[in-house]
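Researcher: Last one for today. Full complex below.
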Amino acid sequence: MSKGILKIAVASGKGGTGKSCVTSSLAAFSGHLAVDADVEEPNLALLLDMKPSFLKNVEVLVPLIDEERCIDCGKCSRYCRYGAIADIGHGKPFLNPKLCHSCGVCKMVCPVSAITETPKRIGEIRRGISDQLELIEGNLDVGMINSIPVIEKAIETAETRSHLLIIDSPPGTSCPVVATLQNADLAILVTEPTPFGAADLELALQLASDLGIPGGIVINRSDIAKVNIHELGEKYNFPVLAEFPFSRAVAESYARGISPFFIDKNWQDGTKEIWEYIKKELSL
Amino acid sequence: MKPFEIVVLSGKGGTGKTTVTSALSALSEGTAVLCDTDVDAPDLWILLEPVTEKTFVFEGMEMASVDSQKCTGCGKCRDFCRFNAISIKNGKAKVNTSFCEGCGGCELVCPENAVIMKHFKQGEYYFSKTAYGPFLHAQMKPGGENSGLLVQLLRDLAMKEAEKLDKELLIVDGPPGIACPTISSLTGADLAIMVTEPSMSGKHDLERLGQLAFSLDIPACVVINKYDLSERHSMEIEDFCRSVNLPVLGRIPFNKSIVDTLSERKIPLKEMKPQIDEIWNKLIQHRKSLQQSV
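Model: Here's the assembly. Have a good evening.
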């Protein structure tokens, strides 16, 4: 990881609370590089009105067994903890690429160097540009299990292009979110004041505190329900930075792929507030 | 007959998976076992008011841990690890269990035998009773690993329970996304209901999820939620569904009273009528035709 590159991760726990709306607004307001690390469902380009183009493949290594060399000792199969190499006792071992985690253990344990590795594509990195803005997008191929290498490659690629990244994280609280949060300087957590939003926000707050990352909360559709998010935030020392009431106009423009920042005064003012907080926290 | 397993998915988060699942659970009137495989951010329990009868610890696969007495900080484990799960801090190897995939390579390369593979608690799972039927659910520890394994485990338990009680249905509330936990939720299911919303993002994510279901050979159908927020995009989604032969079970309007009822932690069944009844009826018909075609 490169030092000196500042990273702001926008996350939420629950999906669909408005992460991409907040990320696109912050990028549009500040002009800094946006990173779409929600690689299973990358939607940031739609909101920034970009058609990102191919930059590079993301590949992992999968084993290739040389049947000529293989002495059928069964070690690769025994040491594979994912059950990806079947060894039926006689005949050569058989690889099930769907179960393979690309760990490289089979290659290491093979006593006759019968296993080499070959790259397999699991996704791609794309780049989008518009008048003032740049986007790096990670995009996982449909059917691939492990999104982490795509997330890491997207962030790594972005790090070579800018000193400040605004990262749109995946939903949830498990490894894909950890991949975007763990080296972040600041977390902006987006929620809605429903029981679902609050329950998942609390999990995200726990994760951020476990990782020692400070940050603040944005309450979207702040008037659709009444769970006290301020109180929850105080418990974890995450202040509420902005609140956006439900707006049909915002929902409709979102449907058409227009970030609320471009059409709504509340969002413009709120985004400014969030940015002021970010500037202060990161001493920009 | 084997219980019919329906998994509710969305690709994009926040389209209303859990709301639809809760309504289907209520409409199943005791003929189903229920399951929540969104183990990162489970929300179905909020509406089902479960009474938990058994709690289990989920450990997942073994992961690496380092005996710092033995570790010399040589870095061989770090260099071998493909998952960036090991760093050297203050002259000792340190494992980040959020990234450790449990391959055991570090244990094999360590010249000091300082790496031990062992189980860690990754979360909990629960067997509960609800007014609508037995309910299998879980909670991963924030930052936990192996959620795909936990999903598989929950579905297996739920299926066994459904078989034992001779239930017709297993209804599963799935996770967002299209990778590990989603693939674990879909594989081997009888039908996927994909809940979408009328926006460009909703459509984009539905297309990806549809491809995934198709590649796994799982029959799928679609529910368009909040359809009146953009009738134009609802029509585009329906056109897309027609073009790839995805049946649309129905459309549910945006209705503030649905959100109000959810806020009271109640299932908005009344508020989703009559559309949800139509969806249920079509679902039952669709199931019959799928079972006959087998």
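Chain B has a mean pLDDT of 96. Chain B has two domains: 4-59+125-293, 63-118.
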